[in-house]
């Protein structure tokens, strides 16, 4: 079996006398210009939409490529060192063909079809030459296999060029997208940014929306793959905390798509704002992420700032809230920590319910008499100031902030 395979691999083409091989090559090389012209004409007839690119001398590049491919193939198979299974296509022009299809946004389907047509027409002519010089059929069959092997090489070259073009276009679009996002997210625009935004958006085919929401993401892993946020959402993964700009965040299907795409990610999406105010949405998203990292907002998911407005408003200006708390809650300073906490919780429940002892007791889950005792203490501490609407507002503000930070317990439901 092994010996039989070795004999087969030896190649029927190699058994053809060298003078016949040289004769085949002489005729085929002489016919190459005419054969290339015939193939070119047939391609133009079958695929009239394919563009014709000319070289500096005005000759179609495709015609030059076809002729070169024919000549290169003939040289390969007529060389004394030709080995079965080792017919390689020349780089260069066919790679350029693939690159051109990619840069012009076309698929490779039509191009590959023209290659197959070219091989079929070339084989027809080679078969005529083979009959003319009496080449044995097994050698001609082998020549067919070599032709399709060569075709695979041409396709590989075009695919490589196509991939290069796609990568180049993706890189250019990413660069233009990043420039658009930079302009969108700049804090202080010079003059009216609408024209500049429209121009940059048009360069990447991004319809300028009326409203946007800006997200800040936290990577689930250092090498995390970019989430598939969908067409139209601008995503920049170059930041340590990736950013995204969501156009028309309330559009039908958009929230559901983002929810699915961002599963496993965490971060925050700012409130919807007019497109020229995108920096404001970013500012709120960044604030939410900072609170998440401090454990003051839920982690492990992508939050919407509009669902956590109270926390963002009360916890973000931390220094101001703490200063207000020191002044407003000064009467509790001399109480022990546990007793002071109970009084603060009772005061907040009273401010929120505006009710009597039974309502406050139900909210806190304690006896009404306990509430009455605490409320008497509260009135003694704050005096008439407890009846001032502005003071009550400040007290409720700082006590809600403390509850959000976990310094106070929440209302009980039992």
List the defining traits of the structure above.
15 helices, 6-stranded mixed β-sheet, alpha+beta, 414 residues
Polypeptide structure, described:
It is a single chain. This protein is 60% helix and 6% strand. It has 414 residues and is of the alpha+beta class. Strands 1, 2, 3, 4, 5 and 6 form a six-stranded mixed β-sheet that branches.
Summarize the structure.
The chain has 414 residues and is α+β, with helices and mostly antiparallel strands. It has helices at residues 2-9, 18-46, 61-78, 93-103, 109-132, 137-185, 194-203, 254-261, 278-293, 309-315, 318-328, 337-353, 357-364, 368-382, 389-404; strands spanning 211-218, 234-236, 243-247, 266-269, 273-274, 302-304.
Q: Give the overall shape, derived from the CA principal axes.
A: rod-shaped
Largest sheet: 6 strands, mixed
Structural class: alpha+beta
Beta-strand proportion: 5-15%
How many strands? 6
The overall pLDDT average reads 84
Helix content: 55-70%
Radius of gyration: 38 Å
Distance between the termini: 87 Å
- Could you give the order of the helices and strands? HHHHHHHEEEHEEHEHHHHHH
Low-confidence runs of at least 5 consecutive residues: 1-8
> Tally the helices: what do you get?
15
């Amino acid at each position: 079996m092994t010996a039989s395979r070795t004999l087969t691999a030896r190649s029927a083409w190699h058994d053809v006398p060298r003078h016949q091989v040289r004769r085949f090559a002489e005729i085929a090389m002489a016919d190459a210009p005419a054969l290339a012209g015939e193939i070119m004409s047939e391609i133009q007839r079958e695929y009239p939409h394919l563009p014709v690119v000319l070289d500096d001398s005005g000759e179609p590049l495709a015609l030059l490529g076809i002729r070169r491919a024919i000549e290169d193939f003939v040289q390969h198979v007529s060389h004394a060192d030709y080995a079965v299974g080792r017919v390689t296509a020349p780089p260069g022009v066919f790679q350029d063909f693939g690159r051109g299809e990619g840069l012009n946004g076309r698929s490779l389907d039509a191009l590959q079809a023209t290659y197959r047509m070219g091989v079929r027409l070339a084989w027809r002519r080679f078969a005529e030459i083979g009959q003319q010089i009496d080449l044995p059929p097994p050698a001609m069959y082998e020549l067919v296999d070599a032709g399709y092997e060569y075709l695979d090489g041409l396709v590989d070259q075009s695919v490589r060029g196509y991939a290069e073009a796609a990568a180049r276009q993706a890189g250019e679009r990413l660069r233009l997208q990043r420039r658009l996002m930079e302009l969108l997210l700049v804090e202080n625009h010079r003059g009216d940014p609408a024209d500049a935004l429209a121009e940059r958006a048009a360069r990447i085919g991004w319809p300028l929306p009326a409203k946007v929401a800006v997200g800040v993401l936290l990577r689930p892993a250092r090498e995390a793959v970019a989430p598939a946020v969908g067409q139209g959402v601008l995503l920049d993964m170059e930041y340590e905390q990736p950013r995204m700009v969501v156009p028309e965040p309330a559009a039908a299907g958009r929230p559901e798509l983002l929810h699915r795409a961002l599963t496993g990610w965490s971060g925050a999406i700012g409130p919807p704002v007019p497109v020229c105010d995108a920096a404001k949405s970013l500012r709120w998203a960044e604030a939410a992420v900072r609170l998440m990292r401090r454990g003051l907002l839920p982690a492990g998911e992508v939050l919407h700032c509009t669902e956590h407005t109270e926390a963002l408003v009360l916890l973000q200006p931390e220094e101001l809230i703490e200063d207000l708390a020191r002044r407003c809650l000064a009467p509790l300073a001399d109480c022990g920590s546990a007793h002071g906490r109970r009084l603060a919780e009772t005061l907040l429940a009273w401010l929120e319910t505006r009710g009597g002892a039974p309502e406050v007791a139900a909210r806190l889950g304690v006896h009404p008499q306990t509430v009455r005792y605490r409320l008497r203490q509260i009135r003694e501490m704050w005096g008439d100031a407890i009846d001032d609407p502005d003071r009550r507002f400040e007290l409720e503000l700082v006590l809600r902030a403390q509850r959000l930070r976990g310094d106070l317990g929440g209302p009980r439901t039992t």
